[in-house]
Design goal:
Length: 274
């Protein structure tokens, strides 16, 4: 699905370029977190596949907040750059909120800036955070109707859980958001027709916590000590009860990248209009 979307986006990128609209993504990475390095490489590779400009800014972990903010100011004014992405998490000592708030909302392809977060709440937005957008695309492309369904999200992060809840609500789902203080999690997850899990704990949700026939979307990416990548859902027990389930790796991850490309093209159009 992600390959097909990227192929469509490549055609769109070619059309934009023919009209003189040049999409360009700046990816800023601070420090040497190995997982962040993998994600940044994947994002650059996707830009390359679509034939769009990507510029990487790899800064050392000891970069000061002033230096990072100065780079963002520069990229905000750079006409070659339509989208700016700062890979999170940032090293300790750098204020993520301050850094995100500095990105021009029109170039905020991650949709983390408060202006874009507010627009998602209202339901009138240019950019959707890439992971929840990828989940919505997976659901839609699989022909699953959300309207009236019990949708349960486990996890309430600003990056996944909260925007996910808004997107499902906009599609008329009946949405419940669970977190670490939820009492009797199993009782809630068992009600879900559509279960989205973004907790960051390996194989945390097991088959017995899932309703027969539910659609299960596993956002989690966890590396075990033996280096194996697993999700937040125990795939083996869950697939026995679910009517549809996403694998890890290879499920939500590639869709997230595809949605980043979609936002980058959108940013090129938005910035051209202004
Ligand atoms: P966060 O750590 O920001 O949030 C985790 C959430 O899980 C919190 O809301 C927390 O609750 C909740 N939680 C923790 N323990 C429990 C528990 N025992 N019961 C119920 N809820 C619990 O994580 P993210 O949202 O950033 O990421 C979640 C996972 O998704 C990670 O594995 C991450 O790697 C992955 N991810 C994957 C992406 C992709 O492209 N596929 C993109 C982004 C993330 P509380 O708020 O109360 O602390």
């Amino acid at each position: 699905m992600s390959a097909r979307i990227k192929a469509e986006l490549k055609e769109e990128a070619d059309k934009l370029k023919a009209q003189g609209i040049m999409p360009g993504l700046a990816v800023v990475i601070v420090g040497d977190d190995p997982a962040s390095r993998v994600y940044v490489n994947n994002k650059k590779k996707a830009c390359c596949e679509l034939g769009i400009l990507s510029e990487e800014y790899a800064l050392p972990a000891e970069t000061s907040e002033e230096e990072l903010l100065a780079l963002i100011d520069k990229l905000n004014c750079d006409n070659k750059i339509s989208g700016i992405l700062v890979q999170l998490p940032l090293p300790k000592g750098l204020d993520e909120e301050k850094v995100i708030n500095r990105i021009n909302p029109k170039k905020d392809v991650d949709a983390f800036h408060p202006v874009n977060v507010g627009k998602i709440m209202i339901g009138n937005y240019d950019f959707v955070p890439c992971t929840p957008a990828g989940v919505m695309e997976l659901i839609a492309e699989s022909g699953i109707d959300i309207s009236g369904k019990e949708c349960v999200i486990v996890g309430r992060s600003n990056i996944v859980g909260k925007p996910m809840s808004m997107l499902l609500l906009h599609k008329n789902g009946t949405v419940t958001v669970c977190h670490s203080k939820t009492r009797d999690l199993k009782e809630v997850t068992k009600r879900a027709d559509i279960l989205v899990v973004a907790v960051g704990r390996p194989e945390f949700i097991t088959g017995e916590m899932i309703k027969e026939g539910a659609v299960v979307i596993d956002v989690g990416i966890n590396r075990l000590e033996n280096k194996k990548l697993v999700g937040d859902v125990e795939f083996e027990s869950a697939e026995k009860v679910a009517s549809a389930i996403t694998p890890v790796p290879g499920g939500v991850g590639p869709m997230t990248i595809a949605m980043l490309m979609k936002n980058t093209l959108k940013a090129a159009i938005v910035n051209k209009e202004n």
